Inverse folding.
C-alpha cells in the first residue's frame, strides 16, 4: 500500500526553559526539601534527563499541609466566591497565553505527541479553570444542598497520563469551592505541575492556596496519612485506590477516586464502519492507550467482524509512530520503562492464553520506550487480556451476536468507567446506554471530554465525579448527615 | 425464657388468650426463620418479654443479597412513576396498621401512647415524602451539559444496585424508614439489618411490604445481632453500597472495620453520624434533604455527535 512520505515537522523546544533542578512549591515559594532527596525526570522518547526533582518527605508534607491550612483559615477562607473566581479566571487566561510552552513541556516530559498536548491536554486544562472560575460565587445555586461551603485542605494525587489536565481537574473545582490544596504530580511527569506553580505566582494567588509537592509513591502515602488532610482526591490504579479507601476507614476524611477501566467499544453491524474504525483507533491508541477510559476491548458484531478488523489493520498501518515533538506523529512514547515492561508482560500473557497477536509494522526508534499498536483477536471473556487493564496501545477483540450478549460481556468486568456504542439506530443507542454499567457512555464517538461533563466510574472504577455540577459535590460540605 | 425477662401476670379464667405473632425474617418476599434455627429474646423498655425474634445469620444475609440482586433487575428499570405509586401504597397500608405500629413503638422505646402515635405519623409522612421523589430525581439531579463541541451530552442519576443498611439502634420505626426509603425510591434494592434490641416494628413493616405491591426481594429485613451479621454484608462482593448508620450504639461494632471491609470492592459507604471515630444516632426529627438519596446514586453521562 502506498503511503505518503511526510517531511519532518518538529515543534521547537526553544520555547521552554527547563531548570536543572526544582524544589517544592510550598506557601507560594519554591523551597528545598528538608530531607534533601532527589530523583530525575526524563524524556521517555530519548531517555534524556530533563531535570532533577525534589522528593517531599514526611516533614515536607507536613509543612505543605500546614501552609494550606494557614491559607484556608486565613486570606483564602475569608475571600468571597466572586473574588476567588477572579483568581481562577486569571489562571485560565495565563494558561491560554502560555499554551504553547505548556504543550511542548508536556510532550517532552510525558512522551505524548505534540498534536495531542497542543490540541487536547492544554486547551482542556485552561477550559477547566475557566469553567470552574464561574462556579465560585454560585455554589448555592448548584443543587448541592443548603449552604454549601469548602471542606478544608485537600490532598490530591494525580497520574502521569495527562499531567496538566489531571492537575486542572483537581485544582480548579477545589479552589472554586474555597478549599486549599496540596497536590502531588506523578514522579515521571512533574514538569508541567512545577510550571503551573509559576502561573500561580504570576496570578498572585495567595501563598499556600496551591502547594505542589513532587515525590514518589512514598510522598503520596504521607499525604494520605496526614491528619490535617480533610479530603483526598486520587486518580490512579484501582489497587492503590482500594488502599486509600482502607486507610481512611473509620475517619471523617472524604475521598473521591478515579481508577482503572477496561471499557468495551461495541460495534454493531449497522454502524458507519469507517467512523467506527476511527473511533476504535481513537479509543485505544490515543495517548498510546494510557487512558483509564480507553476502549481497550472491541466488541464487534460477528457478521461484520472480519470487515472491521481488516479495515482496522489497514488504518493502523497508516499511523505514524515516532518523535513526539514532530507535528505529524500519531503515536508517541510509552511513559516509562516500568510501564513498557507491564505492557510487554501482558501482551505476552495474551499470546500464552491463545489469542492471536498482530502489531502494526512500525520501525521503533532505538532509544526511548516504544510499543507498536497491537491488536489481539480470538480473545475470550475469561482471558486476562479481556479483564485486566493493560494501559498501553493494545486492543483485545471479542465478538457478539445479539445486543443482550454485548451488554452482558461489556458489563462483565469489575470496572465500570466508560463504554462506546456504534450503531445508526437511535433507539438501540438509548437502550444500550441504559443497560451499560459505566459512568461515561460515548455513542458514535469516543474519548470526548469537557469541563461541563461529569466524569467518573461505577463499581471498581471508583466513586465521585469530576467536572460539571456533579463534580463540585466532592469539594463542598453542607454539614448534614441525617 | 431467660431469668431476666419478666412475665406478664397469668390471665384470669374468663379473659381471652391472645394469638401471639411469630416474628420471622423477610427475605425474597417470604417469611423464613433463620437458617441457623436460632432466636433471641426481645424485651420492652422495662425488660419485660415481648417476643422471640429470628437471629439472622451469615447465610440469611447472603440469601438476602441474592434476592436483592435478582429484584434489582426488575425494580431499577421500572418507571419512576411506577416506583412512586408502589411506595405510596406502602404508606396507605402503614396508615391502616398505625395502631399496631404505635403499640410496638411504645413498648419497645418506652414512649407514651400519644408520643408513639406522633412517631408513627412522622414515619408515614416521611415515607410519603420519599415516595414523591421517585419521578423528580432525574430532573433535579440530572441535566444537559453544554459541551464545547457539536455533541448532545446529558447526565442522569442511576441507582447503584444492592444496598446494605444497618438500621438505627434506637429509633425502631422512624429511624428505620429514614434509612430505608431513600435507598429504594431511586431503584436500589435493600438488605436491612434491623435494630438489634428493637426489631419488632421492622417485622411489622415487612408484613406491610409483603401485602403491598413492592416486588419480592426489593426490600429484605434481617433481625439479629448487628456485630455478627454486619461484617458479612460489609465484605460481600455483590453489595454495591453500605449504610453504617446503625453502627452507632451497636454492641461490639467498630464501624472502621466495616468501612475497611467495604473497601475491597469499593462499596459506596455512608458513614454513621458523628465526628471523629465516634458514631452517634442522628436526630430523626430533622427534615431530610437529598443526602441519603444521593449516597446511592451513580451519575451516568452520555455523549452523541450532532450532525446532518
Amino acid at each position: 500500500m502506498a503511503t505518503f512520505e511526510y517531511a519532518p515537522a518538529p515543534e521547537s523546544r526553544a520555547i521552554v526553559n527547563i531548570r536543572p533542578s526544582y524544589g517544592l512549591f510550598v506557601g507560594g515559594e519554591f523551597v528545598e526539601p528538608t530531607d534533601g532527596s532527589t530523583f530525575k525526570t526524563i524524556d521517555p522518547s530519548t531517555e534524556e534527563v530533563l531535570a532533577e526533582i525534589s522528593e517531599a518527605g514526611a516533614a515536607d508534607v507536613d509543612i505543605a499541609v500546614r501552609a494550606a491550612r494557614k491559607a484556608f483559615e486565613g486570606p483564602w477562607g475569608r475571600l468571597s466566591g466572586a473574588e476567588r473566581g477572579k483568581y481562577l479566571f486569571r489562571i485560565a487566561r495565563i494558561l491560554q497565553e502560555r499554551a504553547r510552552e505548556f504543550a511542548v513541556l508536556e510532550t517532552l516530559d510525558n512522551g505524548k505527541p505534540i498534536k495531542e498536548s497542543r490540541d487536547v491536554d492544554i486547551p482542556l486544562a485552561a477550559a477547566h479553570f475557566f469553567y470552574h472560575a464561574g462556579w465560585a460565587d454560585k455554589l448555592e445555586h448548584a443543587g448541592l444542598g443548603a449552604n454549601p461551603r469548602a471542606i478544608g485542605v485537600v490532598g490530591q494525587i494525580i497520574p502521569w497520563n495527562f499531567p496538566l489536565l489531571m492537575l486542572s481537574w483537581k485544582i480548579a473545582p477545589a479552589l472554586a469551592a474555597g478549599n486549599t490544596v496540596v497536590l502531588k504530580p506523578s514522579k515521571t511527569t512533574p514538569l508541567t505541575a512545577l510550571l503551573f506553580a509559576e502561573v500561580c505566582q504570576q496570578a498572585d494567588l495567595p501563598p499556600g492556596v496551591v502547594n505542589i509537592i513532587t515525590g514518589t509513591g512514598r510522598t503520596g502515602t504521607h499525604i494520605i496519612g496526614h491528619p490535617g488532610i480533610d479530603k483526598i482526591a486520587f486518580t490512579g490504579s484501582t489497587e492503590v485506590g482500594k488502599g486509600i479507601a482502607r486507610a481512611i476507614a473509620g475517619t471523617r476524611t472524604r475521598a473521591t477516586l478515579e481508577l482503572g477501566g477496561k471499557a468495551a467499544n461495541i460495534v454493531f453491524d449497522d454502524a458507519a464502519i469507517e467512523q467506527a474504525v476511527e473511533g476504535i483507533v481513537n479509543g485505544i491508541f490515543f495517548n498510546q492507550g494510557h487512558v483509564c477510559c480507553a476502549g481497550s476491548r472491541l466488541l464487534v458484531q460477528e457478521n461484520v467482524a472480519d470487515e472491521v478488523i481488516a479495515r482496522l489493520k489497514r488504518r493502523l498501518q497508516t499511523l505514524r509512530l515516532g518523535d513526539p515533538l514532530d507535528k505529524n506523529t500519531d503515536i508517541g512514547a510509552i511513559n516509562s520503562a516500568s510501564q513498557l515492561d507491564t505492557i510487554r508482560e501482558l501482551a505476552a500473557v495474551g499470546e500464552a492464553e491463545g489469542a492471536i497477536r498482530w502489531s502494526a509494522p512500525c520501525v521503533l526508534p532505538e532509544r526511548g520506550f516504544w510499543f507498536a499498536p497491537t491488536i489481539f483477536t480470538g480473545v475470550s471473556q475469561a482471558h486476562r487480556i479481556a479483564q485486566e487493564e493493560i494501559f498501553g496501545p493494545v486492543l483485545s477483540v471479542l465478538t457478539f451476536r445479539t445486543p443482550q450478549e454485548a451488554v452482558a460481556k461489556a458489563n462483565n468486568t469489575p470496572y465500570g468507567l466508560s463504554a462506546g456504542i456504534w450503531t445508526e439506530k437511535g433507539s438501540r443507542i438509548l437502550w444500550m446506554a441504559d443497560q451499560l454499567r459505566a459512568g461515561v457512555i460515548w455513542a458514535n464517538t469516543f474519548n470526548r471530554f469537557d469541563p461541563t461533563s461529569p466524569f467518573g466510574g461505577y463499581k471498581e472504577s471508583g466513586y465521585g465525579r469530576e467536572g460539571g455540577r456533579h463534580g463540585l459535590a466532592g469539594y463542598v460540605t453542607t454539614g448534614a448527615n441525617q | 425464657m431467660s431469668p431476666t425477662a419478666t412475665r406478664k401476670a397469668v390471665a384470669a379464667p374468663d379473659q381471652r388468650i391472645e394469638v401471639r405473632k411469630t416474628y420471622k425474617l423477610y427475605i425474597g418476599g417470604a417469611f423464613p426463620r433463620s437458617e441457623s434455627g436460632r432466636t433471641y429474646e426481645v424485651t420492652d423498655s422495662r425488660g419485660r418479654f415481648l417476643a422471640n425474634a429470628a437471629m439472622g445469620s451469615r447465610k440469611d444475609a447472603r440469601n438476602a443479597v441474592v434476592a436483592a440482586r435478582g429484584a434489582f433487575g426488575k425494580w431499577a428499570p421500572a418507571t419512576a412513576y411506577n416506583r412512586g405509586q408502589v411506595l405510596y401504597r406502602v404508606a396507605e397500608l402503614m396508615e391502616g396498621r398505625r395502631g399496631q405500629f404505635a403499640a410496638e413503638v411504645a413498648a419497645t422505646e418506652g414512649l407514651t401512647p400519644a408520643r408513639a402515635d406522633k412517631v408513627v405519623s412522622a414515619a408515614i409522612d416521611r415515607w410519603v415524602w420519599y415516595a414523591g421523589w421517585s419521578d423528580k430525581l432525574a430532573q433535579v439531579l440530572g441535566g444537559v451539559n453544554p459541551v464545547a463541541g457539536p455533541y448532545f451530552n446529558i447526565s442522569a442519576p442511576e441507582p447503584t444496585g444492592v444496598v446494605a443498611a444497618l438500621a438505627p439502634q434506637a429509633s425502631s420505626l422512624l429511624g428505620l424508614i429514614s434509612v430505608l426509603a431513600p435507598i429504594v425510591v431511586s431503584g436500589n434494592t435493600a438488605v436491612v439489618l434491623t435494630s438489634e434490641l428493637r426489631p419488632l416494628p421492622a417485622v411489622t413493616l415487612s408484613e406491610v411490604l409483603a401485602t403491598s405491591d413492592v416486588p419480592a426481594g426489593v426490600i429484605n429485613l434481617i433481625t439479629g445481632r448487628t456485630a455478627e451479621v454486619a461484617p458479612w454484608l460489609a465484605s460481600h462482593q455483590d453489595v454495591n453500597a453500605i449504610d453504617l448508620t446503625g453502627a452507632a450504639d451497636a454492641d461490639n461494632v467498630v464501624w472502621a472495620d466495616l468501612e475497611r471491609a467495604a473497601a475491597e470492592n469499593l462499596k459506596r459507604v455512608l458513614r454513621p453520624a458523628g465526628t471523629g471515630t465516634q458514631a452517634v444516632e442522628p436526630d430523626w426529627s430533622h427534615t431530610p434533604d437529598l443526602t441519603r438519596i444521593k449516597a446511592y446514586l451513580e451519575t451516568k453521562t452520555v455523549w452523541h455527535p450532532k450532525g446532518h
Q: What stands out?
A: Chain B touches chain A through 51 residues (CB under 8 Å).
